[in-house]
């Protein structure tokens, strides 16, 4: 799949327009996420927390606030009841107007994916060029937090939402030291993506994808422990 954009730095006026669009997406997306979280079944959080290794005997064990955001994101996309997650049920039961920003974000959430990325280049703020380490493809990510602090070569794990000319993160990205990626994350990828073809995302069932993402998150969080630092961009 080829992305319909260039990585050339844009003039400042274009960049201001990009920031305005991005800020609107972030603001509307935050409200939408809060609405969706409230619609999660009560059992979703403890069940998903157990899968991510941050729940014991029904009690969440969190080192910081960012971990609850990671947990909610996993619940929204991977906790299924009757084969559907809360995003799909929301679209069926109370869809927003077709031309609304809410619908645009929901469609991006439906097309979103969790992956591992390497920072290739810091572009004009707040843009970053990443390489998806599962597919080998380059993507244009717009993210204030990552643009401010990341460095080329950094590996991160997280979910991205694709739009027409760029992607945004789901809000929280986990940085991974190279040693953790090589020694602990690579075996997880090999376990789930045995037939991975260059340029293509893994072909997994809903259950396999949920297990794959859970293991990536669990290993990433355990590697950092109480010292975990995240890239968070929810403004």
Defining traits:
235 residues; alpha+beta; seven-stranded antiparallel beta sheet; two-stranded antiparallel ribbon; 8 helices
Low-confidence stretches: 1-11
Instruction: Give the oligomeric state of the chains in this entry, treating copies of one chain as homo and distinct chains as hetero.
Output: single chain
Note the main sheet: 7 strands, antiparallel
Mean pLDDT: 88
How helix-rich are the residues, as a percent range? 40-55%
The total count of strands amounts to 9
What is the CA–CA distance across the termini?
30 Å
Supply Rg: 17 Å
SSE pattern: HHEEHHHEEEHEEEHHE
Our count of domains comes out at: 1
What is the count of DSSP helices, taking H or I runs of 4+ residues? 8
General description of the model:
By secondary structure, the chain is of the alpha+beta class. It has one domain (12-232). The protein has 8 helices and 9 strands. It has helices at 12-38, 44-51, 65-78, 86-93, 101-110, 144-149, 178-192, 206-224, and strands at 55-56, 59-60, 113-122, 127-132, 138-142, 155-162, 167-169, 172-176, 231-232. Strands 3, 4, 5, 6, 7, 8 and 9 form a 7-stranded antiparallel beta sheet that branches. The protein is globular. Residues 1-11 have low confidence and may be disordered.
Question: How would you summarize this macromolecular structure in one to three sentences?
Answer:
Helix content is 46%, strand content 18%. The chain is built from eight helices and nine strands.
């Amino acid at each position: 799949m080829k992305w319909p954009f260039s990585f050339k730095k844009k003039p400042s006026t274009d960049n201001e327009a990009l920031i305005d669009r991005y800020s609107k997406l972030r603001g509307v997306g935050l409200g939408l996420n809060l609405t969706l979280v409230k619609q999660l079944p009560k059992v979703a959080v403890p069940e998903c927390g157990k899968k991510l290794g941050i729940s014991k005997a029904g009690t969440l064990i969190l080192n910081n606030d960012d971990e609850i955001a990671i947990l909610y994101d996993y619940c929204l996309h991977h906790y299924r009841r009757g084969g559907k997650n809360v995003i799909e049920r929301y679209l069926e039961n109370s869809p927003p107007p077709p031309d609304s920003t809410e619908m645009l974000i929901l469609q991006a959430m439906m097309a979103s994916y969790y992956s591992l990325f390497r920072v290739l280049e810091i572009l004009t703020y707040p843009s970053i060029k990443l390489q998806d380490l599962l597919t080998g493809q380059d993507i244009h990510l717009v993210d204030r937090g990552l643009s401010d602090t990341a460095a080329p070569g950094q590996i991160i794990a997280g979910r991205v939402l694709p739009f027409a000319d760029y992607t945004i993160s789901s809000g929280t990205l986990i940085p991974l030291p190279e040693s953790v990626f090589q020694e602990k994350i690579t075996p997880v990828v090999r376990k789930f993506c045995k037939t991975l073809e260059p340029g293509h995302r893994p072909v997994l069932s809903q259950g396999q994808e949920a297990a794959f993402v859970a293991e990536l998150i669990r290993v990433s969080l355990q590697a950092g422990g109480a010292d975990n630092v995240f890239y968070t961009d929810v403004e």
